[in-house]
Amino acid sequence: MTELVRTHVLVAGEAAARPAGLVATLEHAGFRVEELPAGGDIAAAAGASSPDAVLLCVGGPAGTQLDRVKKLRETVQQWSDLPLIVMTPAADGLADLLFAGADDAVAAPVGGAELRARLERLLARREELRDLRVTLRARELLFDIFQEVSAALRAEEIFQTLVRRVGQALSLSHCSFVVTSPGADHGRVVAVYENPSVRDMRVELTHYPEIQEALRTERPVVIEDVKEHPLFATIRDRWDAQAVETNIRSAVALPVFVQGTPAGVFFLRTREGDPDLTSRDIALADTIAKAAAKVLENEERRAAVFRRQLNAGALDVLTGCASLDGLDRRLRDEYERARRYRLRFCFVVLDVDKFRTLNERLGSQAGDRILADIGQLLQRELRSPDFVARYGGDEFALVLPETDARGARNFVQRLGAAVAKHNFPDMGGERPGFSAGIVSFPHPEALRPEDLFALADAALARAKTASEDRIAIASSPGS
């Protein structure tokens, strides 16, 4: 406790059992005292004034005292952490009062210093328990968040999960993740809590001084009142000049580092009437921001691999996917790794349906653009460890580590949904379809990496003729 003068004590119970000068003793000790008349409704008074502690004075037979304490505890269960001190004229039976539900029991008369010490101890214990509960809730939330993030396959899904869970947990009006860098005049919003449809929106950073300051100082920026803080002076003038009404109250910008350099900002804002952001809330958001940093690191590592492959000629120029040579090397590596360590993976071959007809109808240049778009969609849908290559003219191949047949089917279905949403300008509103053949390793007929190609091609042929959703999984002998 830092300011005892603000500690509010509700004195209740029988007037005859209250020692003379009790209220004066408490006030002299620095407490703010509210005295409830004898017979008053303690639960109603506690609900109306929210005291920090209740001092209940009881007298009469021991059984009556115990009944009063038990009844009070049952009545105010919603304030289970409200400290209750019971004061009685008799020293006998104090232990029974504790068993009945009192947090402390004391025989009157009692000195002001002792009473103050007892109250302070109970209030300190209450704060410790509250801190512990908050810590446990934060840990449970973090565990839930990271469980959900671990199931996400794409960076944008992970960012969406992070901003959504933090926005919900802290009851925020705005929570987003902005990818940018020091000195940049714009950023790219990749996830927004209150508007999940925003996935890639350019923003001018001059409208967000807290983001610019976080990038400049490489430290968290916490602004409790944007209407008074000097950092917002310029933008407030702009709001006034443009007659912009805003109810923004506070703002937090947490820089996210990749290899020691700011690469983005976890961005929070509250409005008038929102709950205040506490230091615990900001610490929680900062922990989530560090998780976002890992996502950015993975994406940067993946981009570096892409650049190296491009320089080494291991990429297909049209689609940006790996070349056939790159696929051969990767599939052999994954096969040996899975065989040696008893791991699983899936090999998938995708074929664009009726692509020859599309080429004849739209022309080869339009066909190339469609293939390039599909290649980009595939790369966007992949997780960091996944691999995609152009397998043939209108075919793509995927290597999906640590994935079973069901997971591979889900990926193909998700890709179909992404294709259905994508605009292919050359097709005039139509969307290309595709078929997929899946091999799940280990497979009894996959004795060499080359066997996976034959199994996937056979499953692909079956998908085109015998599968309702045009997805087929290579079967085992006798199945």
DSSP helix count?
Answer: 14
Mean pLDDT: 83
Strand content: 15-25%
The ordered string of helix (H) and strand (E) elements is EHEHEHEHEHHEEEHEHEEHHEHHEEHEHE
Structural class assignment: alpha/beta
The CATH topology name of the largest domain reads Alpha-Beta Plaits
Largest β sheet strand count, sense and barrel closure: 6 strands, antiparallel
Overall number of domains: 3
End-to-end Cα distance, whole Å, is 71 Å
Task: Note the overall shape.
Answer: elongated
Structural topology:
Layout (H helix, E strand, L loop, with lengths): L7 E6 L8 H7 L3 E4 L6 H8 L3 E5 L4 H14 L8 E5 L5 H7 L3 E4 L4 H40 L3 H16 L3 E6 L6 E7 L8 E4 L4 H9 L3 E3 L9 H9 L6 E11 L2 E11 L7 H33 L12 H18 L3 E8 L2 H8 L1 H18 L5 E4 L4 E7 L3 H17 L12 E8 L7 H18 L4 E3 L6
Parallel strand pairs: 1-2, 1-3, 3-4, 4-5, 15-16
Antiparallel strand pairs: 6-7, 6-11, 7-8, 9-10, 10-11, 12-14, 12-15, 13-14
Give a short summary of the structure.
It is built from 14 helices and 16 strands. By secondary structure, it is of the alpha/beta class.
